Inverse folding.
């Protein structure tokens, strides 16, 4: 890599002595997360918290050389400075809770632990310890209404803030998801469109229509991440774990069932082909989570036998259920009834 060329990374690459703000990325791919008030190890400098965009390592660096730092973990850069946790022990604000809630919906349940870089990132953004963030996420998980419905222990002392975010989410899931995405975008110095991976060219120029479209796309992205993480990024029919091929399918369609748009029990993590089959009523799930295909999908010629066999070999097998948020049998049964009505 040519160190003399400051602009090869992307448009947000920092100029020497130029603007430095969260979201900027230095010429070695290190993203600025937050400028703290803590004194760095150089004279008259403060500590920036950086995130490596290659390996997600999070570390502190002097503001004097943040623009040229290399990752200590994957680029043989100098050791990072431990990042300050100046707000640890401080009461969690509503905004802190919303940010934690957002992360809770974005990572698999089994990865809520202090080794997860995503927890380090949130801790760095909040100025809190990773332990404290991990504890908060565990508390949010404990109060998840889906678990509560199964009789998991109720709210305990000190869980007021966690209960408040859940109540807000239940009252207005889409509005709340949008708000949480807006807050995280602001903290990361990114646009809402970037966070939700929306292509700005697909949006109307301006006005109410654009806002409505952004809200819909942000919510779809929130649902997608919620489902994929709940299923541990594994297709529940084939077991495929190739992320770009995975889709969060709605069991009852988005347009049809407003109330359950973001309900994780109204979702399945499927590969793109079985997602389409499910959506087009060529595949359904019977009682006991058994996979069924429409008779016309089994029809094949000598030429198509191999691909049809690949598609339908899962007939009669059971869905690979996620560790949490198993799909609701009543939603699956409604979808199955509809599929069968189309055949007979
Ligand atoms: Zn790295």
């Amino acid at each position: 890599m040519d160190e003399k060329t400051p602009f090869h990374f992307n448009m947000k690459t920092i100029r020497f002595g130029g603007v430095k703000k969260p979201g900027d990325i230095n010429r070695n791919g290190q993203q600025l997360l937050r400028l703290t008030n803590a004194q760095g190890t150089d004279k008259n400098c403060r500590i920036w918290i950086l995130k490596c965009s290659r390996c997600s390592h999070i570390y502190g660096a002097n503001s004097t050389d943040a623009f040229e730092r290399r990752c200590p973990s994957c680029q043989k850069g100098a050791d990072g400075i431990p990042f300050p946790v100046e707000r640890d022990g401080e009461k969690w604000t509503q905004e802190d809770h919303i940010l934690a809630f957002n992360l809770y919906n974005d990572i698999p349940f089994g990865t809520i632990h202090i080794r997860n870089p995503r927890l380090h990132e949130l801790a760095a953004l909040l100025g809190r310890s990773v332990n404290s963030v991990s504890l908060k996420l565990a508390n949010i998980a404990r109060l998840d209404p889906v678990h509560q419905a199964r009789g998991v222990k109720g709210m305990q002392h000190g869980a007021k803030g966690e209960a408040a975010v859940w109540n807000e989410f239940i009252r207005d899931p889409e509005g709340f998801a949008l708000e949480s995405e807006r807050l995280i975008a602001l903290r990361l110095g990114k646009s809402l469109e970037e966070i939700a991976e929306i292509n700005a060219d697909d949006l109307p120029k301006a006005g109410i229509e654009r806002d409505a479209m952004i809200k819909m796309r942000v919510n779809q992205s929130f649902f997608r991440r919620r489902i994929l993480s709940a299923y541990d990024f594994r297709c529940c029919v084939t077991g495929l774990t190739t992320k770009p091929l995975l889709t969060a399918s709605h069991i009852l369609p988005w347009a049809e069932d407003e109330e359950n748009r973001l309900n994780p029990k109204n979702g399945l993590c499927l590969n793109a082909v079985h997602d389409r089959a499910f959506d087009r009523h060529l595949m359904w799930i019977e009682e006991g989570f058994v996979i069924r295909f429409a008779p016309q999908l089994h029809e094949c010629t000598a030429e198509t036998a191999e691909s049809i066999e690949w598609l339908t070999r899962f007939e009669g097998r059971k869905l690979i259920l996620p560790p949490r948020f198993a799909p609701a049998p009543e939603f699956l049964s409604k979808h199955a009834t509809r599929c069968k009505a189309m055949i007979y």
Q: What stands out?
A: Residues 52, 54-55, 57, 71, 73-75 surround zinc ion (CB under 6 Å). Strands lie at 30-39, 46-52, 58-62, 246-250, 267-271, 283-286, 290-293. The chain has twelve helices and seven strands.
